[in-house]
Amino acid sequence: MQQKQPLTIDASHQNPIAQILPRSPIISSHHAGWNGIHLEYHRQPAHEMPEYCIPHHTLSIGLRYGAKEFRVNGHLLRDFVVGNVGICPANQSLSTQAYGNAEFILLTVDPTQFAQTAYESIDTENIEIVPQIWGFDPLIYQMSLALKHELESSELDSKLYAESMATALSVHLLRRYSAHQQVIKDYPGGLPKYKLREAIAYINEHLEQNITLAEIANLLQMSPHYFATLFKQSTGLAPHQYITQCRIEQAKKLLANPELTIVEICQQVGFQSQSHFTKVFRKYTATTPKVYRKR
Length: 295
What we know:
The protein has 295 residues and is an alpha+beta fold. The protein is built from ten helices and ten strands.
């Protein structure tokens, strides 16, 4: 008798997990244009999922569970704890049964971009992530909540933040959950001055665009992790923080031009949402763009 093959989830689908779960996610990063990482926040009733596999590394972070036990790959698990983290490597089959209402976050990480996160330090051809059905990882828990908050508060402008978090998450997975020890070096000393100038020039010339961590790292011919680490050592800020700061400083200059509307300024400094632009501007200046312009 031919063995039934696991259902392969099409990760390019707008709502891929809908193929195996009874309800669509409450929020999803599908429309946010994130690269290398995808987030879904779920509230699901009791359910049984068929055996399936996803061509991405998948992390499940439990937030609330309405029953005392649930089953994963036939193993009965009890005493659910908020923040429980399950890790399923790409293309590994999985089946679950939830006996009560479940609230959780699903994170999927693209294995191709995952392998390129810190290519200077690792053997990209020999990466194997160890599965974890039941465990607690405070860092992954906090990262998932931070990504969920960013998606909820600034969906259209969350791409760079998500990419930065994807890099940090990938490095953490490589260090802690790799089947083969991966020594990811810490690089002291910051970027060489000419590379720092090149990175800053690129940022300032492309503020109106959706700048990504990967494109700056590629420009400097280094991995995203290597670049982000050295850039922060040089500037005191993570790349996404520095870019946001540059955007606000440019916006302040543009507000001096009465011929430009606030919507036009928002677009010229790379914000896709005016409400999010106003929120970030207030955070950096303690006032709104409109009030700042009247000074």
